[in-house]
Amino acid sequence: MPFAVYILASQRNGTLYVGVTRDLGRRVEQHRAGLGSAFTRRYGVIRLVYAEAFDRAEDAIAREKQVKGWNRAWKLKLIEAANPDWLEISADL
C-alpha cells in the first residue's frame, strides 16, 4: 500500500482521527507508542478501524482533506460500511 488514508478510533463511536501516510504500519505503531500526533496521544485514539489505499500521494491527500471535511455522521457511515463491528484492522492491508 504505497499511500493510505486511515481512520483511528478510541473505541466504537468514540473519538476519531483521520490521517494520511506512505507507510501505514509504521504510522499506526507511532500512534500507539504515543509518537503520533498530540491529538491521538491525548485522547487515546489508537485503534485502526478504516484504511483506503492510493497509488498517488496527490490522490491520498485529496481524499484525506475530503474525509476530514465531512461531518461525524458521514465518517461513521464510512467506517461502518467497511467495518460494521469496528474491529481493529491490520495495518498490513
TrEMBL record:
PANTHER family associated with the record: BSL5627 PROTEIN (PTHR34477:SF5), UPF0213 PROTEIN YHBQ (PTHR34477)
InterPro entries assigned to the protein according to its UniProt record, in alphabetical order: GIY-YIG_endonuc, GIY-YIG_endonuc_sf, UPF0213_domain
GIY-YIG domain span: 1-77
Q: Which SMART domains match?
A: GIYc
According to its UniProt entry, this protein's organism is Alsobacter sp. KACC 23698
> What's one Pfam family here?
GIY-YIG
Note the PROSITE patterns from the entry: GIY_YIG
Family the entry assigns: Belongs to the UPF0213 family.
Name of protein: GIY-YIG nuclease family protein
Task: Give the Gene3D superfamilies listed for this entry.
Answer: GIY-YIG endonuclease
